[in-house]
Structure formats: structure tokens, C-alpha cells
Amino acid sequence: MNNFPSIWMDTICTGDPRQVLNMYLPNAILVATYDPNILRGHQQLLGYFNRFMAKEGLCGKIQSTYVQPIGRFKVFSGLYKFQFTEDGEIKSVNARYTFVLVPTHAGWKIAEHHSSEVPDA
After folding, report:
1. Around Cβ 32, how many Cβ atoms within 10 Å?
2. Which of 64, 82, 62, 73 is nearest to 112 (CA)?
3. Which of 41, 51, 97, 107 has its Cα between 20 and 30 A from that of 35?
4. pLDDT digits over 25-54, tens only?
5. From its phi and psi, is residue 71 left (phi > 0), alpha (psi between -120 and 50) or beta?
6. How far separated are the first and last CA of the chain, in Å rounded?
7. Domains and CATH numbers, the chain
8. Do 11 and 24 touch, CB atoms closer than 8 A?
9. What residues contact residue 103 under an 8 Å CB cut-off, 6+ apart?
10. Nearest to residue 28, comparing CAs of 12, 45, 11, 16?
11. What is the pLDDT of residues 89-98, one digit of tens each?
């Protein structure tokens, strides 16, 4: 369970948005790296992941993870790096994340996810 962010990233690297969506509660909230809106529910999340995962060669790596158990929830925070090809050039994006997970009968699911680019220092 403590490797949940790595499992999420491996799922991103499959290129299948529906597999990623399966990791979220039906009413999950996503504050996404590349969307100005706060997204809620599978329909909006699927639209975002369809666009985000269309980036050529998209994959990434978890760089750090911190876990905070809070009651029956788990909060994961850390850093990840995405890579993809844009206009023939390989791009790398350093970002930070927070996942709030809840246990369900189908396993742990994401209730809330925040992701944003790491600002230049």
C-alpha cells in the first residue's frame, strides 16, 4: 500500500486513461497539473486523462513519497517527474502531488488528488 504513488504512475505509463480512472472514487476531486478547473467525478476526470495521456510517450517516475495515516484515510505527498515528447522534443516536468486515499470494498481509491508543477526556485 505504501507504494501507491508508484502504482499510479505505472498506470499512467500504460497510456490507458480508463485504467487510471479505475483508481479514483466515482465522485473524486482532481486539481490537475494541466487544467485550470477543479475536476469532479469520473466524466470530468476521464476527459482530463484522455487529453493528458495523449501526450506522446508520456511516462514518469516518483521521486519522493511521504505517507500520513489519518484515521482510516492515507495521505500521500511527494514529487514526481513526467516526461513526454512535444513538437519532436523530449520535455520533462517536475511536479508535486497529494493523494487522499480511502479504503473501499474494491481496495484503496483516490478521493482527492492535487498535482502542480514545481515552481522555479
Report:
1. 19
2. 73
3. 107
4. 999 999 999 999 999 999 999 999 999 999
5. left
6. 32
7. 4-117 (3.10.450.50)
8. no
9. 72
10. 45
11. 999 999 999 9
